[in-house]
Amino acid sequence: MIAQSYRRYVAVTLAAIAILFAVVGVAWIARWRGNDLNNAQELARALNTQGGVASTLAVPYNTFKKALYDYRQPDVVVAGSSRGLMFRQSAFRTSFSNLGGGIASADYGFTLLDRVFAGRAPKVLIYAVDHFTFLPSAMPVDERPVGEVRAVQRVRVNAALLPYRLLIDGYMTPQQFAKLIGLSPMERAPLPVYGMTASTDFAGGDGADGSTYGIGTMKAVSQQSAEARFAGDLACVRRGEACREVMRPATQIDRRRLMQFKNLFSALRERGVHVIAFLAPMPPLMLREMKASGGYGYLDALRAAIRAELPQIHDMMDIEALGTSDCEFYDAIHAGEIANLRAMLAVAQKEPVLAQQLDAANARATIARYEDAIMGVSDKTSEALASLIDGYRFRDVCRTALSRSAR
Fold first, then answer.
1. Which of 128, 269, 284, 406 is the most buried (most CB within 10 A)?
2. For 274-333, what is each residue's pLDDT tens digit?
3. What domain count does the chain have?
């Protein structure tokens, strides 16, 4: 009787172990087929030696960005939120790395100073500042010059079970999962791709310099008119509603945040870093609607405060006079590569240090070729990536809508 119970226990235990190994094994197959088994340092080395793009949740995003920075040892970096992600190496003469994708507050700058620049600081830091960073908010403001910085946001997932987590949380579709485990065919991208979802439905990712190539998203967005791209935010502005925090109406700014940026710039200068900051561009249509609504007085208050107290921050919010159009923005707050190049050329006229680092001739040539587009390519872009971007430039829908609205 005891022997029979023991055999049953052993059988159940072995069955449980077998199921566990099968579950983990399927997850490993998914990650292997999705080219998603690299750590941050391996990703940085692969991107910079073999090319391609990476879009993975197996490695925390900020860890990945730091690994790229450490590998490239750049002289020039761009920092800020996702609104700075389309600044690329091709725009600069010297080594460059994009550290965008964080939070464009001074807290994020302190994080870079303490954790990323601790071993080696860049010569030039270009800071893309969000106007909505200065909105009055219930969030605490750290007014200390340096002090303890906030923890960097990380994705905390057991790597062995990551594919299941992505499936449950909706980051991966059942169809993508089926491709990854070999139940249905998976087309490979024409260049190296690192990341499970990016491998199954090639939508782009970050390149060797840390800048983003959201090719799949840009393909879809580029076939929409500006009104369609901005529809949700336009409706909220016209109704005077705060549908999301970054578009919240307000009349005043949080002046403590001005002091925080002053402290950050001072700390960076002490480390020998030349800081060039600018208010990131906004679509002309959105700015006109925000002004007409009468609910966004804080924008004028912010511009006045920056002129008086923080002249290091260049006002590039409204760059319509520089030739940009709504077609060069892929949503209500994000400028594409072409609009950002226009802003950089304008800032370089006032910043001799930037003028020395910027490849102005290449930037102008890219703008001329890709006017009204979100992304462009230059002679410095890899052939495989250039062919993908060139094929997804669909500007006709947006341009036609612009022509109609102008009549």
1. 128
2. 999 999 999 999 999 999 999 999 999 999 999 999 998 999 999 999 999 999 999 999
3. 1
Q: Name the strand (E) or helix (H) holding 402.
A: helix 396-406
Pairing, β 124-129 against β 313-315: unpaired
Q: How far apart are CA 34 and CA 179, in angstroms?
A: 9
Cα separation, 322 vs 341, whole angstroms: 10
Question: pTM above the 0.70 mark?
Answer: yes
Taking only the tens place, the pLDDT of each residue in 100-157 is 987 667 888 888 888 899 889 999 999 999 999 999 874 544 433 333 333 333 334 4
Domain of 367? 2-406
Q: Rounded to whole angstroms, what are the CA distances from 285 to 229, 237, 331, 397, 404?
A: 11, 11, 11, 17, 14
Task: Note whether 78 and 128 are within 8 A (CB).
Answer: yes
Find how far residue 71's CA is from the centre of its chain: 19
Chain centre to alpha carbon of residue 267? 25
